[in-house]
Amino acid sequence: MKRASRPSYPARSRPAPTRTPRTRHRPAAPTPPSPAAATPQPDNRVAELATRVLAQASRSHPADAVLRDELRKQRGLPRALAASVTRAVFACYRWFGWLDPRQTLSQQVPRALELEARFASDPHSFSDAELLACTVPSWVHAFVSLTPAWVRSLQQAPVLWLRARPGQGHLLARQLGDVQPAGPGPWADALRYDGAQDLFRTPQFQAGHFELQDLHSQAVGWVAQPQPGQTWWDACAGEGGKTLHLSALMQNRGLIWATDRAAWRLRRLRLRAARAQVFNYRVAPWDGRLPLPSRTAFDGVLVDAPCSNLGTWQRNPHARWTTVPEDIRELADLQRQLLLNAAPAVRPGGRLIYAVCTLTPSETTDLATEFTQARPDFVPVNLPDPFASTAPPSRPQSQLAPQPLSGPWLWLRPEARPANGMFIAAWQRQR
């Protein structure tokens, strides 16, 4: 139950004007391209494949999935060419608000790449007003307070983060190359990768020495602080990214229940766990309703709920134009149900962790406040900010040096560091 299915607009057309009444205003005169922003035209093969992907992407077929399928069909395609196609496809969605819908897709591809090159070389050639008007659909203004810093972060190239096995970050960095640790101590196991090799084909990946996991997603595990020997439930486990991190922090000791409503995600979780040599887990289907999949009283429950994913719009620009206001309302209802139904599984003294990679109040602070009022036996926990100290928490809080507290809710903003936007809330059950 990791991600909600997300509807999608046809790639060639702009989203239909069934949004909030606010009008999307463009600047009167967008800044013309500068000579320094010139970029080579994509060769015919790149333009052809990118156009093919854009034409197939739709409400029910996300661009990243269509892209993977299309590249898989092109047997023997050079890696550099595949990378150029990927860049062209995502550039079209990242700069969709600047493209002329009257142009053909084959005309839009070079225009998007031109805009991307111009932003990379001179980001201030785009005014704040232009970015606020064109980066996201107009309905977003009614749900999120847009800032120039956020929309500028959306137009930057996303960073690839790896999570090494505990204590193995420095060794992995030397083996892979082109790697920059996030910091000292346990931070050294969070690695920024700037290379070009196919990481899935490396012997280190095949041996389970690392996972691809966003930096702020890793922070969810650090905040949860599971301990060896404890029993945890990853209620919306998806394909197991956070399940594997919980297991690593628990030193493969204790037990983790991993559930999801989609059987195919749990099958992928099993494959990932086998590669990572994770054994302290069980899987079970769960659709978010009662009864619960287990009668166990858990030391901790993680609800990494399906959400509108606004925090991932830098990495997945297609989703900016496929998400609609109705999704946010429906997902907030689902998140409320998941929290309320999962709460009874927490033992007295145990912790309930809620995490979503979105920025809307209705899915974050409003929902967390509503849950606190509905379940007074769950007391909000003041969370330490894992990025406010030199190392993320990896021991019980009582054993840590004092850290700045973020309050009962923790915001990890995408404009603060190159990672997805994330909201985390935690409660401790009193009785």
Report a brief summary of the structure:
Helices cover 33% and strands 15% of the residues. With 431 residues, it is α/β, with parallel strands linked by helices. It folds into 3 domains: 41-125, no CATH class; 160-212, 2-Layer Sandwich (Alpha-Beta Plaits), CATH 3.30.70; 215-429, Rossmann fold.
Describe this structure in words.
The protein has 431 residues and is of the alpha/beta class. It has three domains: 41-125, no CATH class; 160-212, Alpha-Beta Plaits; 215-429, Vaccinia Virus protein VP39 (Rossmann fold), CATH 3.40.50. Helix content is 33%, strand content 15%. The protein has 13 helices and twelve strands. The protein has helices at residues 44-56, 63-73, 79-94, 105-121, 128-134, 148-154, 169-176, 203-206, 215-224, 241-249, 263-275, 325-342, 365-374; strands at residues 160-164, 179-181, 190-193, 210-212, 231-234, 255-260, 281-285, 298-304, 346-356, 378-380, 409-412, 422-429. Strands 5, 6, 7, 8, 9, 10, 11 and 12 form an eight-stranded mixed beta sheet that branches. Strands 2-3-1-4 form a four-stranded antiparallel beta sheet, with helices on one face. Helix 1 crosses helix 3. The radius of gyration is 22 Å and the shape is globular. The relative contact order is 0.13.
